[in-house]
Amino acid sequence: MAGGAELPDRLVKSVEAAGFGDASWADVLETLAHSVGGVRGILLGGSGAARYSYSCIFNHDPDVAKAYNRHYNRFDPRAQPSLRVAVGQTRLGQELMPNSAISHTEYYAAISEAGDIADSVFGVISNDPEMGRRTISLQRSFSQDFFDTRDALLLKALLPLLGGAMRSSLRVGRILAEERGDETILYGLVDSDLSLTFLPGSEPDSPMLTGPLRFGRDRLTCGLPALRNALIAAIAEAQSARSTTVRAGAVSLRFDPVPSALHWYRSGRTQVFFTLSRDSARAHDSSGLFAESFGLTPGETKVLEALMREGGVRPAAGALGMSVETARWHAKNICAKTGHAGVRKLVDAARANDLSNLI
């Protein structure tokens, strides 16, 4: 018994498992919503500016959810009063602000009516430096009755459990980041537009420069178009569930799919997990990113792939069915384009996705 409501054992186990990546956060939201008779659920992060953004949703129209994050979160009429709700406390949506007070607004039409969201029960999970302000909203449709105090009590009992699972997941993220590189510098989530979301404790105090890369508060910028394109291509690989490492000078950037334990932290499904580290020499089994970054032709890319497989010009020529002279000519051109003095150094760089010579 907690907060006046008894928690079903299956609910407790589901939330705890999500914190370690053994259950889906979307499934957890579904279970939580159904436990209070709701049909939708959303996890939100916010700030003192009273602007929330969703990180995980259940049964919401994706277009309405995106519209909320892009624009309508600035006009959420319940955001400001919700800031007065303390950690571990809950409020009914109609207590924060009744529908009758906002039914004439554009927000109500674009979010409430378009998303079939008639009522909510809201709770504050955390509000501290490690987690930020994290909240949950479980919702009902216009075909249902409003929530009541019993629903708020059940959600209140769940809030400490949710907070504990989220903190566990952040520890999982830190451990993964430390395992990814020899000397981890920064880690977090990045999207294909190079927007950044750092995990707590990783964010730089001020913009950080490393070679042509600049890590700002919420964006990665790169002064070299070829390297920027290589980073975007690497992110696309990770979005397709293929881990990729890009080396640039004395640092490397590794991109992985977001661990399932951290899915609640994402601001969109296209984000991937990144780790910036020093002196990483991890190899990647594809020459495509390396070849694209240095502008190799399709023919040169095939020769490079053969060199990486076979280890030398003569065996690569045999594998490709071309003369040694032709293979050597291609290898010479590839070395000139990539700035490597010899096939051995070229192959080592291509296997490691080392793009240092772009700098």
Please explain how this structure is put together.
There is one protein chain. With about 350 residues, the chain is α+β, with helices and mostly antiparallel strands. It has 3 domains: about 10-165, Transcription factor LuxR-like, autoinducer-binding domain (Beta-Lactamase); about 180-280, Beta-Lactamase, CATH 3.30.450; about 290-359, Arc Repressor Mutant, subunit A (Orthogonal Bundle), CATH 1.10.10. The chain is about 40% helix and about 20% strand. It is built from 13 helices and 13 strands. It has helices spanning about 10-20, 25-35, 60-70, 80, 95, 105-115, 150-180, 225-240, 290-295, 300-310, 315-320, 325-340, 345-350; strands at about 40-45, 55-60, 90, 120-130, 130-140, 185-190, 195-200, 210, 215, 220, 245-250, 250-255, 270-280. The strands form 3 sheets. Strands 2-1-5-4-3 form a 5-stranded antiparallel beta sheet, with helices on both faces. The radius of gyration is 25 Å and the shape is elongated.
Q: What is the topology?
A:
Blueprint: H1 9-19, H2 25-35, E1 40-46, E2 53-58, H3 62-70, H4 79-82, E3 90-92, H5 93-96, H6 106-113, E4 119-128, E5 132-140, H7 149-180, E6 183-190, E7 196-198, E8 208-210, E9 213-215, E10 220-222, H8 225-239, E11 244-248, E12 251-256, E13 272-278, H9 288-293, H10 298-310, H11 313-320, H12 324-338, H13 343-351
Antiparallel strand pairs: 1-2, 1-5, 3-4, 4-5, 6-7, 6-13, 8-9, 9-10, 11-12, 12-13
Major beta sheet, strand line-up: 2-1-5-4-3
Globular, elongated, flat, extended or rod-shaped: what is the shape? Answer: elongated
Number of domains: 3
Strand fraction equals: 15-25%
Structural class, please?
Answer: alpha+beta
Highest CATH level, the class of the largest domain: Alpha Beta
Radius of gyration: 25 Å
Relative helix content: 40-55%
Which stretches are poorly predicted, pLDDT < 50 over at least 5 residues? 280-285
